[in-house]
Amino acid sequence: MQSFPIKDIPQDSYFTKPAYLDGRFILTTPEMPFTNALKKALLDWEFREVQSDGIPQEEYSDTTTANIQEREEIKEVEIKNNNDSERLKQAIEFYQKFLLYVENLFTRYTTKNEINFKEVADKIKEVCDVVKEDRRFLLRVEIPLSKNQNFLANHTVKSTIIAVIIGTYLKLPNHRLIELGVAALLHEIGMLKLPPQLYMSNRPLSPQERKAILTHPILSYNILKSLDFPLSICVGVLEHHERQNGEGYPQKLKGERISLYAKIISVACSYEALTALRPYKDAKDGYTGMIDLLKNVGQQYDDTIVRALVYSLSIYPIGLYVLLSNNKHGQVVDVNPENPRYPIVQIFGEKTPDGKNKTIETSHDGVHIVRPLIKEEVETIQE
C-alpha cells in the first residue's frame, strides 16, 4: 500500500480503494468521501498518514465490476464444530432467556426496589461462559423490535454481551470480568426512575427534559450504592457517559481519570446504540457503526478499548450481511484474529461437498468484502 500525507489529501475526495489508518483500520471505503472533519480529527490526534492501494480522486468511481473480473483466489475455511445451525439456535434461545431475565429484573426493581448482587453476579458468570464458547453465534442473534417498543432491556443485553467480549479480549481476571458484566447489566438502571416518554420520544427534548436524561448515571450510581454493590461497579455505572476529551457527563472527567469499566461500557453501549433502532432514529449497519467509533478514537473513546472491539468483532462485524467481490452475498460469521479487515464469511446458497455451509476467509488478494448490504437487500435474503 502507498502512504498519503493527510494534510495533502483533497477535501471530500474519494479513494479508489479503502483508505486505512496504521495499515489496519479502515477509515473510508470508495463510496465514502474523505471529509474535512475526518481530516481535521486525524491531524488533531497527531496522525500524519493514511495508507491505500488506491488514489484520491474528485468523484466516486464504482469499481465493483472491475473487482469481480479480477482473478480471485477463494480460500475456504472450516470452522471447528460445523453444527452451526444448532449452535445458532442455542445462542438465540440463550439470548431470549437473558432478555427475559433482564426484563424481570427491571420489573422487580421498579415494583419492589430489589436487586440481589449475588444473583446478578451468578447470571453474569453464565454469560461469560456462553460468550467464551459461542461469541460468534451470540453476535448474529437479531431480536426484531419496532420503534415503539421499549429498548432498554435489549440495549442492556447487547451492551453486556459486547462489554464481556471486550473484557475477555483484554484478558481481565474472572472476578473483574464479572464485575464489568454486572456494571454493564445495570448501567441504565437509573433510567427506570425517569418517565419512559423521555427516552422513547421521537421529538427533540426540551432543555429541562434533556437535563433529566443526563441525571441517569447519577441515579444508577445512587441506586447501586444504596444496595451495597461494590464501589468499582458503582463507579463504572456512574462514569459510562464520560468521554476521553472531558466533554461527557456527569463529571466531565478526562482520559485516565475515567475507570476501566466505564471506558468499556461506553464503547459497548455506544456501538449498540449506533446499530440499533430507536424511536428517534434508524439503525446503522455494523460497519458504519464501527467506522463512527473509529472516527472518535481519542476524542470520545479510549483507543485500547476500541481496538479490542475491532479485533473481537472485526471492521465488518460478526453478523453483518455483505456483498463480496465475486458478486455473492454472505454474512460475517467470525473474525480473522490476524487481520480484522478480512473476516470469515459464510456464503449464502452454497454448500461444501459434505453438505456444510460454505465459509471462506476473505483476503486482500482474493475474495473480499465490497460493502455491507443495504436494508432492502437484507430483507430480500431473509424472506
Automatic annotation (TrEMBL):
Domain HD-GYP as annotated: residue spans: 130-325
Domain of life (superkingdom): Bacteria
PROSITE patterns: HD_GYP (PS51832)
TM regions (residue ranges): none
Record-given protein name: Metal dependent phosphohydrolase
Lineage: Bacteria, Pseudomonadati, Spirochaetota, Spirochaetia, Spirochaetales
